[in-house]
Amino acid sequence: MTAVGIDAVEIWTGNLKLDLPGTFAPEKGEDPEKYTKGLGLNASSFPDSYEDIVTMGANAAHRLMERKGLEPDDIGRIDVATESAFDNSKPVSTYVAGCLEQVYEGDFHHANKGERKFACIAGTQSLDDAYNWIRAGRNRGRSALVIATDTALYARGDDGEATQGAGAVAMLISEDPNLVELSAEQGYGSADETDFLKPNQQFPSVDGKRSVQVYLARMREALEDFESVAGEVHEEDFVYAPFHTPFPGMVRKAALLAFRHVTRDTEVEDELADEIGRQPRPEAFDSDDDYRDALREYMDLLKDTDRYAEWYDTTIDPTLTISREVGNWYTGSVHVARASALKHALENDRDLAGTKLLVGSYGSGAQAEIHAETIREGWAEEIDALNVDAQLAERYEMEWADYEEIHDAHNHEMDVDIEEFTTPSEEFVFDGWGRMGERKYRYVD
User: Fold this and answer.
1) Structural domain range at position 25
2) Total count of domains within the chain
3) Nearest partner of 327 among 84, 59, 35, 60, judged by Cα
4) pLDDT tens-digit profile, the chain (445 residues)
5) Which are the catalytic amino acids?
6) CA-to-CA distance for 71 and 183, rounded, in angstroms?
């Protein structure tokens, strides 16, 4: 069976930066460590006044196509995953295709285009759609372009305001990929939940405590479902485990639960037994409350063990490096985590070909998906081509007044016209409104 997976990836971050401990925390009267140590964030990325989900997605896709030497005829479908869409009918993918047709001789009239929505998991669902399209033999030798693009903007004063972020991830899905091969096996955990939603509104309504609980519950279900088809998962099976990352602090919670799960009934649990005891089993307790109390106590002890800390530092922490500097990208966040892990491996001269990632995606509402990815021989060349470090370094650092302006400029309910903070170059930009209220774009050399 021919391998199908991600052949190449590109990242495009918003051109503005908000320093959380240095700028955000003082204005909020908060301890900077609430953000750096609590949330695990140093900065957030924002779109300049001429940027939006279309420009960021089109710019990431354009850079990918240029680097890979692709023409429109090489692409058979364009799928955009977003929860920041501005039209209930016309998909963002058509705007992206229109942008790209400005810089290529050919067009994408032959390509299937769509838009996926299921909160933050839609990017992974779009990968699944492209995988299935190729596996079904409908691609006619062409590849798929999957783009996850979002502006995660919260209402001013909302508890989630510090986790904001904006950017896009473009991925090329092909046969015999260079980067990673996707597993045929998947696991799901899904339920009708109201942890995070946007009922005909731009800014989300969030039950923060509930959202964490739902995230962890659905991830557990997805992992158990994955094991039902792929076999038991053990800690040594995977070199990295990229999770959906609304903020790194949330991943710390998921990672602890994952480690407990994959070490149950293993030598690792035996080794830890002398130090913290064995994992509680529900059948040993008279009530659910007693079991949950014992489990919480065990988890607190597990978190402080050297064994867990070593695993976390090796398998999880490298997935969070980019996210710490950009905030939440919604549909792109788990794909940023994958890139971050592979970038860390490249920088540390790790030979990963043939090893595996365990990828945990999540979308509020709610659904989690677990699948495996096998790292391919060409992974290092693909990751080495990323210029994300340069993008992060070149962002314009906003003062508080700048942030207030740019937040208003991207608030759909406000009519704000502000000067751009940066000068666009070799990128697509928003260029005003058309006769039917549509957005218009142009390419700036």
Assistant:
1) 2-442
2) 1
3) 35
4) 799 999 999 999 999 999 999 999 999 999 999 999 999 999 999 999 999 999 999 999 999 999 999 999 999 999 999 999 999 999 999 999 999 999 999 999 999 999 999 999 999 999 999 999 999 999 999 999 999 999 999 999 999 999 999 999 999 999 999 999 999 999 999 999 999 999 999 999 999 889 999 999 999 999 999 999 999 999 999 999 999 999 999 999 999 999 999 999 999 999 999 999 999 999 999 999 999 999 999 999 999 999 999 999 999 999 999 999 999 999 999 999 999 999 999 999 999 999 999 999 999 999 999 999 999 999 999 999 999 999 999 999 999 999 999 999 999 999 988 999 999 999 999 999 999 999 999 999 9
5) 83, 120, 244
6) 28
3-state secondary structure string across the chain: CCCEEEEEEEEEECCEEEEHHHHHHHHHCCCCHHHHHHHCCCEEEECCCCCCHHHHHHHHHHHHHHHHCCCHHHEEEEEEECCCCCCCCCCHHHHHHHHHCCCCCCCCCCCEEEEECECECHHHHHHHHHHHHHHCCCCCCCEEEEEEEEEECCCCCCCCHHHCEEEEEEEEEEECCCCEEEEEEEEEEECCCCCEECCCCCCCEECHHHHHHHHHHHHHHHHHHHHHHHCCCCHHHCCECCECCCCHHHHHHHHHHHHHHHHCCCHHHHHHHHHHCCCCCHHHCCCHHHHHHHHHHHHHHHHCCHHHHHHHHHHHHHHHCCHHHHCCCHHHHHHHHHHHHHHHHHHCCCCCCCCEEEEEEEECCCEEEEEEEEECCCHHHHHHCCCHHHHHHHCEECCHHHHHHHHHHCCCCCCCCCCCCCCCCCEEEEEEECCCCCEEEEEEC
SS3 call for 77: strand
Taking the CA atoms of 239, 38, 188 and 6 in sequence, report the sign of the dihedral they define: negative
Task: Say if residues 401 and 409 touch (Cβ distance below 8 Å).
Answer: no
Q: Are 43 and 322 in contact (CB under 8 A)?
A: no
Q: Which two tokens stand for residue 88?
A: 């209930």
**pTM value > 0.70:** yes
**CATH code of 92's domain:** 3.40.47.10
Token reading at 109 = 């009239």
